[in-house]
Specification:
With 808 residues, the chain is an alpha+beta fold. It has 25 helices and 22 strands. 50% of the residues lie in helices and 17% in strands.
Length: 808
């Protein structure tokens, strides 16, 4: 009985498969269209799911929060936390538990057991791994008694470092290794998939809070915590705001103007990636709609061609319900083939965006994007939609009595009814409109990128090699570090092709640097919350010359001032405009909250972009390295040859002075600037690719519709030619119809782009959301290409042989 029930279904499926296979080029076009449209959408959903929707891989992730300090007067958000405030929060908060402190963003020198190297490090309190549910694959994690019962430094190593440097040796546990020049005992190895909230860290050193932390000075910590059972995020923020107000009254010179933000850990990790991802998902959804409209048009054309077949089958006894069911099965076969190909396209796309170049997109958790079960479910949902769209809708249209056979008994061309023609024309208009929206979006993003990369950073990045060294404090005091820098610079100057050598702490485009508040000597000090803030950059005497930063007034440091740590400073133009708008700044003295004493301004230099090309210049104070030695330095080497050719010579110069001193981040300065625009450049390429794909599909739709209309009007055109119409007149007739169709799509697309570009405005640099050049260029391009796509149909119409058509 069961086989009898299944047999008709299997027979219908085989018939549907044969019918689809006989479609030839039409079937291939539909499958390819679906593969590109569904594949792109599925891949983009895979990214969105991994980045925005998937829970963090930690226990009770909904309770995990990040805590940042926020300076209200300066509107400075997500600021690192003062250790003193961390201790007070831990003691007073009731809505939050499991406070964990993290200090990261630095590198640790690893020596012994191979060549010296610097690896990403973090100092963490003992409970971090308990809070994140991490267990050791060898040894153990930190416990509360560590740091109390042990006097030696303790560390845990990441899996990658353990495998790469130590060959996965299990005997490494409980053994001491040299970290930053100090013997440190390894207590355990972390699993391969462990990351610190999306950040790769190779060495975790134990951070032990003590009474020194309770002194209100400096901000350096990242803080994790958990919501207490039953507490909400709003309640935690309210309580922490109350505690911050209390601390402001307790330490007015330190905490004035500072408040606290408690943020869901996943939302904090994603940061501002939600808006660009939402826009990219909207862009690929438009491509999907264009693809579906194109495929629907192709299916409608196939159904129209088969109208005679349907009438014969109805005459032989087939019911309309049976024929619609058969068309639904054919739609299922088409959609299944297209979805299978789409999964291959999606896999290839995800491989591209999550591969070695994934960092270019600047999107956290991007490496986790895969063809997971939710992503497959989304693809199956699209499959269901396409099955209905390509089965029920064309079947319903094909079986309506909306038209008749074209004149002439031998023709097999079905003219279709007016409603059907309107439907197909409407689908093409929608394709053009969506393509216009995407092409305009690509133009806006492209123009924004062009303007961004043309921004001058304030220095000459060409022919400059950079690298960083961090002399370990266990072997180098401040005087020894300065002597090391001078010896390395001297060795580098002797290398062939080296023009000049300088040094700086916190190089531009190499991450955030130091900053602090300051006052001008002789002026009434402002309230602590309103004191001006400047970025601090210790440099040597040759830094400005190597980077070719213009000197606007006065002079830069001398070698003696750098060596002795003289109390002098060089400031930038932004600071002068802020603090000395109508005064000569030279000779003025600054009280900088960096170290006690006054620093005399001896020079003014041009503004420099520090973080990115799109950032606005801020107040900057340069000190001699000798007066603000923070333990590491980045050398800048101007060369007359290719920068990369000096890489080996740079390593040799450093190791000639200290063979156990590793180098890191050996990069041309231009590469650092290029990396800062990698994310907007990748976004521009993606939007441009979506726009090009949508435009291609729309052009195929326009060309296909015009070809079908010309084929259906051949008898009419033949009669016109027989009655004296010229080929030029026929060309104009067909082209004007195509022009009206394209113009309608352009108008709708323009309206849609004006609405959609509002969401794009925040991502554009120096480019208005209604940029007339981008709009005009996009519309002219779409109109021109659309008319060219109709050229074959226009030529065929003008070459219609009247006698042959009228005799048929």
């Amino acid at each position: 009985m069961r086989s009898r029930l299944l047999l008709p279904t299997l027979t219908d499926l085989r018939l549907a498969a044969r019918t689809v296979r006989r479609g030839g080029a039409s079937t291939a076009a539909i499958v390819l269209t679906l593969a590109l449209a569904i594949g792109g959408t599925t891949a983009m959903y895979g990214v969105v799911h991994a980045v925005l929707l998937e829970a963090l891989p930690y226990p009770e992730p909904d309770r995990l929060v990040r805590i940042w300090e926020r300076h209200v007067p300066r509107n400075r958000t997500r600021n690192v936390v003062a250790p003193a405030n961390f201790m007070e929060w831990r003691d007073r908060a009731t809505t939050l538990t499991e406070f964990t402190a993290i200090s990261r963003g630095f590198y640790i020198a690893v020596t012994g057991d191979g060549a010296p190297e610097e690896v990403p490090g973090a100092n963490v309190t003992w409970n971090l791994f308990r809070q994140l549910g991490a267990t050791a694959v060898a040894g153990r994690t930190f416990v509360e008694s560590d740091g109390v019962a042990n006097t030696e430094p303790l560390a845990m190593l990441g899996w990658n470092l353990w495998q790469r440097r130590y060959g996965g040796d299990p005997q490494l546990v409980d053994r001491s290794i040299a970290l930053a020049g100090r013997p440190t005992r390894v207590v355990g190895i972390l699993p391969a998939d462990f990351t610190l909230l999306g950040h790769h860290v190779d060495v975790f050193r134990l951070h032990v809070p003590d009474e020194v932390w309770r002194a209100p000075r400096g901000r350096s910590l990242e803080v994790l915590a958990r919501l207490a059972p039953g507490a909400t995020l709003a309640e935690a923020n309210a309580e922490m705001d109350t505690i911050a107000t209390t601390l402001e009254a307790q330490w007015p010179q330190f905490d004035a103007g500072w408040r606290v933000d408690v943020i869901d850990a996943r939302a904090d990790l994603v940061g501002h990636a939600d808006r660009p991802l939402a826009l990219l998902l909207a862009a690929v959804a438009l491509v999907l709609l264009v693809g579906c409209a194109n495929a629907a048009n192709l299916v409608l054309a196939r159904a129209a061609e088969r109208r005679r077949e349907f009438e014969v089958r109805v005459a032989l006894g087939a019911t309309r319900r049976t024929l619609v069911g058969q068309l639904v099965l054919e739609g299922l076969v088409l959609a299944t083939a297209g979805t299978g190909a789409a999964l291959l396209v999606a896999s290839a796309a995800l491989w591209l965006v999550t591969g070695p170049a994934s960092h270019a997109f600047g999107i956290p958790r991007l490496e986790n994007a895969t063809i997971s079960l939710p992503v497959i479910a989304a693809a199956l949902g699209l499959l269901t939609f396409c099955t209905l769209a390509f089965g029920l809708v064309p079947g319903w249209r094909a079986l309506r009595r909306s038209g008749g056979l074209a004149p002439g008994s031998g023709t097999r061309v079905w003219t279709g009814g007016r409603a059907e023609r309107r439907l197909r024309t409407g689908l093409v208009v929608v394709q053009i409109a969506f393509a216009v929206v995407l092409v305009i979006g690509a133009g806006l993003v492209g123009r924004s990128l062009v303007r961004l990369v043309s921004v001058e950073p304030g220095f000459d990045a060409g022919q400059v090699l950079t690298f960083t060294v961090s002399p370990p404090s266990a072997r180098y005091d401040e005087a020894a570090r300065l002597a090391l820098y001078e010896r390395v610079a001297g060795t580098l100057r002797a290398q062939p092709g080296v023009e000049r050598v300088g040094a700086i702490t916190w190089l531009p485009f190499a991450g955030p640097g130091g900053g602090t508040s300051f006052d001008v000597d002789g002026r009434v000090p402002l309230a602590a919350a309103n004191r001006p803030v400047a970025d601090i950059r210790p440099v040597d005497a040759d830094y400005f010359g190597v980077m070719r930063i213009p000197i606007r007034q006065g002079r830069v440091f001398t070698a003696d001032e750098v060596r002795t740590g003289a109390r002098v400073a060089v400031v930038n133009e932004s600071l002068v405009r802020l603090m000395f708008p109508n005064e000569n700044p030279l000779g003025k003295r600054l009280q900088v909250n960096w170290n006690p004493g006054l620093d005399e301004i001896v020079g003014v230099v041009g503004d420099v972009k520090l973080v990115g090309l799109s950032s606005e210049p801020r107040s900057q104070i340069y000190f001699p390295i000798g007066s603000a030695n923070v333990g590491f330095v980045t050398f800048v080497v101007r060369t007359t040859i290719d920068e990369t050719a000096l890489t080996r010579a740079a390593g040799a110069a450093v190791h000639a002075v200290d063979p156990n001193l590793p180098l890191r981040d050996v990069l041309p300065m231009r590469a650092r600037i290029d990396a800062s625009v990698a994310a907007p450049e990748a976004a521009a390429w993606l939007v441009s690719a979506f726009g090009a794909l949508a435009l291609l599909l729309a052009l195929v739709g326009v060309a296909g519709l015009q070809a079908a209309l010309v084929a259906a009007r051949r008898p009419e055109l033949a009669i016109r030619l027989a009655l004296g119409a010229t080929p030029a007149g026929i060309r104009w007739l067909v082209m004007s119809g195509a022009g009206r169709l394209i113009a309608t799509g352009l108008a709708l697309g323009l309206a849609g782009a004006l609405l959609a570009s509002r969401g794009l405005a925040s991502l554009l640099y120096d480019t208005p959301a209604a940029d007339p050049v981008a709009y005009l260029t996009a519309m002219v391009a779409v109109a021109t290409l659309g008319l060219l796509a109709c050229a074959a149909a226009v030529r065929r119409a003008a070459n219609t042989p009247p006698a042959a058509v009228l005799r048929s």
